[in-house]
Amino acid sequence: MLRREAAWSQQHPTIMGPDRSFLYFGPGQSQGHLAYGNSPLQPMANSIKQKRDSSNSRYFKSQNGSKEYKWKINPQRIECSDGRSTIAVWELSQPEDEFHARLTIRGGGLPVVTEILTTLTLNRVSLALNW
């Protein structure tokens, strides 16, 4: 389960939608299903779609299905865009940093913060498990 911390939610009271998502993995570390809040289950594959076999981009739609977003995946950096601008960036840290990686979500990404964190997690798992 991924969820927003209460302190974060209090700082961003205008952010609507489910504050958590649930990931249900299949047998043998295979893809399974996910759910946002109390929404119906959906295949994980729908949230990490690849349009071309040779592409390192993955696509997902907002929970209401009205907008498509794109993750551009590289080993050190993963960027999410809404078709016009970058709304989130995940980057591995430098050796001198006290943290492993940094996620920056720009204002345009806040309305879909749950989807961003869920699909980022799925993309990282996908890389680790060679899905």
Provide key terms for this protein.
2 helices, 131 residues, 4-stranded antiparallel sheet, alpha+beta, 5-stranded antiparallel sheet
Q: Largest beta sheet: what is the strand line-up?
A: 5-6-7-8-9
For the secondary structure, the number of strands is 9
Largest sheet: 5 strands, antiparallel
Structural class: alpha+beta
Averaged pLDDT, please? Answer: 95
Distance between the termini: 20 Å
- Globally, the shape reads globular
Strand content: 25-35%
The count of domains is 1
How do the SSEs run, as a string of H and E?
EHEEEEEEEEH
Sequence stretches where pLDDT stays below 50 over 5 or more residues: none
Tally of separate helices: 2
As a whole number of angstroms, the C-alpha radius of gyration is 15 Å
* Percent range of helical residues: 10-25%
How would you sum up this structure, described in words?
This protein is an alpha+beta fold and 131 residues long. The chain has one domain (2-129). It is 18% helix and 31% strand. It contains 2 helices and 9 strands, in the order E-H-E-E-E-E-E-E-E-E-H. The strands form 2 sheets. A 5-stranded antiparallel beta sheet has the order 5-6-7-8-9, covered by helices on one side. A 4-stranded antiparallel beta sheet has the order 1-2-3-4, with helices on one face. The chain starts with a strand and ends with a helix.
Show the helix and strand layout.
Blueprint: E1 2-3, H1 6-11, E2 20-24, E3 33-36, E4 42-43, E5 57-61, E6 68-73, E7 77-81, E8 86-92, E9 101-105, H2 113-129
Antiparallel strand pairs: 1-2, 2-3, 3-4, 5-6, 6-7, 7-8, 8-9
